[in-house]
Amino acid sequence: MKKHHYKTTIQWTGNKGTGTSSYRNYERSHTISVENKPVIEGSSDTAFRGDKTKYNPEEMLLSSLSSCHMLWYLHFCSEAGIIVTDYIDHATGIMEETNNGSGHFVEVTLYPTVTVQNEEMVEKAKELHQKANEFCFIANSVNFPIKHIPAVLVK
């Protein structure tokens, strides 16, 4: 088996001068960086005193699932001779808080709308979403269901 290693740097940028002296005295702002790539500005969800103009970890998880699915899907379509000309997904996720303040995702639903070149490709294009889910690295790493409600258009 091959192993792949990843490295990222998360740096807290929310010290307003007194550090974490109290729950309300610091920002949840941080940067996410990977060498030779643009920096991503992050925060917590606004429900947890975060900055709504920055990405939060929950959005990043949802985006990771959606993009991983898309990349595998496009790969399998290209192998099967399915010519995809457009792909968009408006993914949703549900996270549930527990009584002690922790939480976890209970489900994610992907809504990929795929445009293929001709009508003969539609059925196979729909089927390949299942295979993409089975191969997706991120989907294989989470412990909650990932639903798929795909649409296939012809153009």
The gist of it:
With 155 residues, this protein is α/β, with parallel strands linked by helices. It contains 2 helices and 9 strands.
Biggest β-sheet: strands ordered side by side in the sheet: 1-2-3
User: Strand tally, please?
Assistant: 9
Structural class: alpha/beta
What is the count of DSSP helices, taking H or I runs of 4+ residues?
A: 2
Pattern of helices and strands: EEEHEEEEHEE
Task: Describe the protein.
- The chain is an alpha/beta fold and 155 residues long.
- The radius of gyration is 19 Å and the shape is elongated.
- The chain contains two helices and nine strands.
Labels describing this entry:
155 residues, alpha/beta, three-stranded antiparallel β-sheet, three-stranded mixed β-sheet, 2 helices, 9 strands, 25% helix
Present the secondary structure layout.
Layout: E1 9-12, E2 30-33, E3 40-42, H1 57-80, E4 84-89, E5 92-97, E6 103-110, E7 112-116, H2 122-135, E8 146-148, E9 151-154
Parallel strand pairs: 6-8, 7-9
Antiparallel strand pairs: 1-2, 2-3, 4-7, 5-6
Helix pairs in contact: 1-2
